[in-house]
Design goal:
Layout (H helix, E strand, L loop, with lengths): L1 H8 L3 H4 L3 H13 L2 H11 L3 H5 L4 H10 L3 H11 L3 H6 L3 H11 L2 H9 L4 H5 L1 H8 L1
Helix pairs in contact: 1-3, 3-6, 6-9
Length: 134
């Protein structure tokens, strides 16, 4: 039944994720589907993660997708956040996504997220600081 529902949603998952009721249906499908189906949903949502991160209903699906993401998928998601961390943190719903990604990230990925909050000058010289420390 879950496979059938995901098949019918295919191609429209990012639209469905933004709706109050259908996002819950989608979350349940993602919870009970196979890993291969989760990977398909992740790939379909990948280009829309930033817009979904600002949506109050879709944020729960994004968090669930991050919980079940492989290391490669998580790294891809964190790279998607590059350049958008500060605006997301200022947003009530977006900050939840950044915090959740930060909790799941490796030390290097956490450093990458934090670095975006530094001034432009410090970001330019980050390579010099890390080279001097080694």
């Amino acid at each position: 039944m879950v496979t059938e529902a995901l098949t019918k949603m295919k191609g429209k998952i990012h639209e469905i994720a933004g709706s109050h009721i259908t996002s819950r249906v989608l979350q349940t499908c993602v919870k009970h589907c196979s890993q291969a189906e989760r990977d398909e949903v992740f790939e379909e949502l990948r280009p829309h993660f930033l817009t979904l991160a600002y949506n109050a209903y879709a944020v729960h699906l994004v968090k669930k997708m991050l919980d079940n993401a492989s290391k490669k998928q998580l790294a891809g998601f964190i790279s998607t956040l590059r350049g958008h961390v500060a605006p997301l943190l200022r947003h009530m719903v977006g900050s939840v996504v950044v915090e959740h990604a930060y909790d799941l990230a490796s030390a290097a990925q956490k450093q990458e997220l934090i670095l975006e909050l530094y001034s432009t000058e410090l970001q330019l010289f980050k390579d010099l600081v890390s080279a001097k420390e080694t």
